[in-house]
Amino acid sequence: MVDFFRGMPVSVELEKDLSLKQQLLDVVLIRKEDGPLPCRLPDGFEELAAHNLISFKSYQEALDGWTLSELVGHYVNYRKQASPSMKDLLPETDFRLFAVSVRSPQALARMVTLTPVQTGVYEARHFTGPIRIVVVHELPQQEHNALLHLFSAQADLLRYGATHYRPHSEETSRLLLQLFDSYRLEGVVMPDSLEQLRRFAREVDEKVLREMPAEELVRRASERLSVDELLAALPAEMRAALIQRLKENCEPPNSGGK
């Protein structure tokens, strides 16, 4: 090639390093063991493989042919990294590809055949294998789909997601509120039922304050806020309780409370 194109307006690059530009895959789900999971998964995700690669497109983004090509590229790179060696690649059956789109991928439907699997779930063949397509706005309002409805731009679906999804950790409730606040900035009308999520966030905060050692609270707060800023941000009753706990933990032994 180098010799053939010599003297022509063609550049030949050999063994080009394609790792120079950072490539980020949206989500990877890794099954750690076989057997049924303890809850029903969102539609389209019922049959997880050992490694499940997910590309996500919000309401502002289009799920198109380039997205699928990029997902396949991520799969090729990920499979190489997850396998014992380049000569001993994990079997293709250990991997599944998913593309989640909040809105209907109309442009993609004009390029490839989207075979319906169930309501809101399709399958497309791209290159050599199938890709599962999940369209959030078409999914039924059912409990197991609440997670995906949290990302909807339709008020009724977002309301359903906000009222039916229960966070599994104390960090998640605040993360969801940040998500909804970003929707407000984008002009999306938010349902009144989000106040339920705010109450849940406050309940989680109160539980954390009750159970976490005072020293740990101060340590975590100092990473982001001063103690004064932390106290100022708390409701009055929580602030009083925290001050009392700090006093109790800071009193020297046999001080008599002084």
Characterization of the model:
By secondary structure, the chain is an alpha/beta fold. The protein has a domain at 22-149. The chain has 9 helices and 6 strands. The chain has a 6-stranded mixed sheet with strand order 1-2-3-6-5-4, with helices on one face. A hairpin with a 2-residue loop joins strand 4 and strand 5 (121-126). Helix 5 (170-185) runs antiparallel to helix 6. The longest helix has 18 residues, at 65-82. The radius of gyration is 25 Å and the shape is extended. The mean pLDDT is 79.
Q: Can you give me a brief rundown of this structure?
A:
The protein is α/β, with parallel strands linked by helices and 258 residues long. It has helices spanning 65-82, 106-109, 146-149, 155-164, 170-185, 194-211, 214-224, 227-233, 236-250, and strands at residues 27-30, 51-57, 95-101, 115-118, 121-126, 129-135. The chain has a 6-stranded mixed β-sheet, with helices on one face.
